[in-house]
Write a structure and sequence with these properties.
This protein is an all-alpha fold. 65% of the residues lie in helices and 0% in strands. Residues 1-8 and 11-21 have low confidence and may be disordered.
Amino acid sequence: MNTIVSEEPQALSTYPSAQTPRHRPSSWAVAWDVLRRRPTGLLGLAILLFFIGMAAFGPLFYPAELPSNPSNIFAGPSPAHPLGTDFQGTDTLALVITGSRYVLLSAFLAGLFTAVFGTVTGLISGYYLGVPDSIITKLADFVLTIPSFPLLVVLSTVWKFGSPLAMGLVLGLIGWGALARAVRSQVLTLRERTFIEAARGLGFSSVHIIVKEIFPNITSYVAMKFLLAVTGAIYASVALFFLGVLPLSTNNWGVMLQFAFSQAGAMYTTQSLPYLLAPLACILLVTFGVVLFLDAVDEMLNPRLRRG
C-alpha cells in the first residue's frame, strides 16, 4: 500500500493568479468527509482513540502497585474481574490497562522520531544534493545494513530502556533510514517539476520551497509510514520483554506474555489462557485499527484519490 506522489502537485501558495480562487474546504471537513464515506476508516480511528485514551487515562484509576490475592489465582471472568486473574491473583484487566502506557507511548515516540528524522534528512538530501546528499545517503545506507532486532538485544545489555522515551528514541534512530531514502527519491522527482521551477524564479527561499511546496505533496506517504512505524515499534518492544532481555520490573504487554509462559504455565494449562490472550488481543486490535485507518489517511491527504 504505497503512496505515489500526486500527479498534480499542490499549487504555489503565493503564486499570483488572474482567476478568483475557489473555496477550499478545511482539513477537518475533508477528513470528516473521507471518514463518512469510509466506515472502516472511522472504525479504525475509533479503535486507535480507544487505546490512546486507555493508555493516557486508564492507569490513573489504579494504584502504582496492583493488589494481588494468592487465594484467587487464575480466577475465571467475573463482574469483579472481567478478564480473570493471573498467577498471583492480580486482576488481568488492570494489568492490561496499566501495561498499555509503556508500549503505546514508546511506539508513538518511535514512530514520531522515525518520521521526523527520515523526513527531514530525506528532504535535505533530495533537494540540496551535493555534499549533504552524499553524507545523508551514506548514513541511511549504514542504518539500513544494521540488523535492527539483534542490535536492540545487544543494546539491552548496557541500556535497560526503563522509560518509554529511551525505547522510542532508540527505535526511531534505527528505523529512519528507509523513510529517508524513500522521501529523497520523491523529492528528486518533485524538484524538477514546473511549479518548483516557478517558485525559484519568484525568488522564494529554499526553506520556503521545501516546507510549503514539496512537503505537502509527500504528507500522505509520511503519515502512512508513521503509522506503520508505530506498529513495528509495538512488536519490537513487546518482543524484547517477551524474550526476557529487558528487566521485567515494568508492567507492560510484553512482560505479561513472558510471565504467561515462564510463570503461569501457558504451555501446560488452559487456566492461564485469559492472561495470555489479553495482551495478544490488544496488540492485534491496535494493528487492526492502524490497517483500517491507513486507507482513510491516504485519501485524506491525497487530492487525486479524493477526486477518484
